[in-house]
Amino acid sequence: MSGTSADGVDAVLASFQPPLAHPRWRVLHQCFYPYPSDLRAQLIAVGQGQPLAASALLDLAEAVSEAQAECARRCDPDGRAELVGCHGQTIWHRAPQGGRRGASWQLLQGPLLAQLLERPVVFDLRASDLALGGHGAPLVPAADAALLPPIGGWRAVLNLGGIANLTLLPPAQGPERHQPVRGWDCGPANSLIDLAVSRFSQGNLSYDKGGAWASRGMVQEDLIQSWLREPFFQLPPPKSTGREDFGLPDLDRRLEELELRAVAAGVPLEPADALATLTAFSAAVVAADLRHGTRPLELVVAGGGARNGMLMDQLRRRCRGLLVRPLAELGLDEAAREALGFALFAWWHQHRHAGALPSVTGASRAAVMGVRADPSR
User: Fold this and answer.
1) Whole-angstrom Cα distance, residue 51 to residue 61?
2) Are residues 271 and 196 part of one domain?
3) Do residue 260 and residue 167 come from a single domain?
4) What is the number of domains present in the chain?
5) Measuring CA to CA, which of 83, 99, 177, 311 is 20 to 30 A from 319?
6) pTM for this structure?
7) What is the pLDDT of residues 97-149, one digit of tens each?
8) 3-state secondary structure of 355
9) How many whole angstroms separate alpha carbon 224 and alpha carbon 247?
10) What 3-state DSSP class applies to 183?
């Protein structure tokens, strides 16, 4: 799995045993393989609409496929895997809107990956849901529902990658136990923060380690409350988003507003203040969504943002009354959740078991996810 942050590839080697809907599972090994810096820069640029010649785009797809293969080899050095599920790298996502169907492009050469690994590969996992009128995102709520045990009330699972997305899992008992799983994209998590860090550090840093830089700044709360009134944050689920909405142009607009605020106060804009405000904003979009509708008992956090101390602190402050804790306390490393989900989707594909949840994506029905590519023998 490689997400919107485009920092590299997470892989797990996992085993699954029936029943299909709620399998017994085990993570045998996991690995992170960072993209080379030039490849990451190209992917981020293309993901924000930078024009690229067809030949260069072909080279980029090949480089992504080779990076995915290298990560899989490092995760499975003994070649134990029987099947590979690969998400590829999203470079553009278009949510359904105004009667127009959605579309999503995950850059990957599936047959090449199958050949490089000498294993069958299941890829293009969003396409069937999109074809049925869904958003094709978020997909991992289906895996959360299958792999995580229910509790006495609603449980929220939050992924803090480039984009923040939520899963709401029904309780184990009571009248709401038969309610459908819910989930949606909330807005930016690390996307704006990482871009701002890169800008303020002149490209020397790619992220705010532990949230240390942001923690030295002051949050502009009134600006955050103004941003929360923007149209995307008023949309009801199903909804999905990406760098198309929360990329460099969006960062420029928000930094300009912060700059104007600083100028009006007669002081220069401090990078720490900008990062503090952007970090608090990422927490605020999640807290705002959780205030509407079903109130969960706890918020379990996964993704790279779970290692950002200030972001986690802001979540706890803004989600008062909820137990906020890392996914690792449930026995699953926060960096492994999405990779494990896509391994499950490949296993489901092999057994012709429907994957994505219409209650999350808005599709007309659930369908078997993905396309299979087999290596030539």
Assistant:
1) 15
2) yes
3) yes
4) 2
5) 177
6) 0.94
7) 999 999 999 999 999 999 999 999 999 999 999 999 999 999 999 999 999 99
8) coil
9) 17
10) strand
